[in-house]
TrEMBL record:
Family according to the record: Belongs to the enoyl-CoA hydratase/isomerase family.
Keywords assigned: Lyase
PROSITE patterns: ENOYL_COA_HYDRATASE
PANTHER family: ENOYL-COA HYDRATASE, MITOCHONDRIAL (PTHR11941:SF54), ENOYL-COA HYDRATASE-RELATED (PTHR11941)
Official protein name in the record: Enoyl-CoA hydratase-related protein
Amino acid sequence: MASFENLLYAPDAASGILTITINRPTKLNALNGATIEEIRQAVQLALDDKQVRGIILTGSGEKAFVAGADISELAALNDISGRRAAEQGQEAFCLIEESPKPVIAAVNGFALGGGCELAMACHLRIASDNARFGQPEVNLGLVPGYGGTQRLTQLIGKAKALELLLTADLIKADEALRLGLVNHVVPQAELLGFCQALLARILTKAPLAVGMIIDCVNAYHDKERHGYQTEATLFGRAFGTEDFREGTAAFLEKRPAAFKGN
């Protein structure tokens, strides 16, 4: 069985369902570069494994799916390394989005920043009733870097996406359902069981047709990914600003940020 430092990789041969769990509970499952690389490796391993027919992606514990990126790691990036970090995240998340095997995000608790972006890369999103979603990067003087500006707009529309991106507001599970960000909201205790039952229904269908439908739906949007390239460029550029240094310092020092627009 595959072994990872920051993930739990649990295939079930009888059902064909693989459960990948982000397992950094002391960090509320925050994403660092090593974890993003492990996600990419785990998904690629699943794609290459004929016994894996569908994937559930979740976070350890009940507080967080993924509470965001690891801010202490982000604080050390510059404009060049920041762009590389965005491209790394986009590559991993696009692998999920383009998987011909269905991927369901079981969102248990906070899905913020990179966590919301990870959930949006999955084909379906099921939220526990205590889930919270948001893209708070602007609070740090940053923009989303792992596809958030693109997928949020695709899922809920330009106007509401801009509101959430510009205000950094968090929304509860019921609001996420109303906006179309998630497919269902269920009690925390029923989350994994619901996802397993939903995925099992999908897995009764023709696998090739399922993969083709995923590809067709993805093709509705720009396959050249110019939006993603723009996002990665500006994500990197944001690391060269004083506002980024102030935003991350304020976060780590647990104080309000004083942005000056430079």
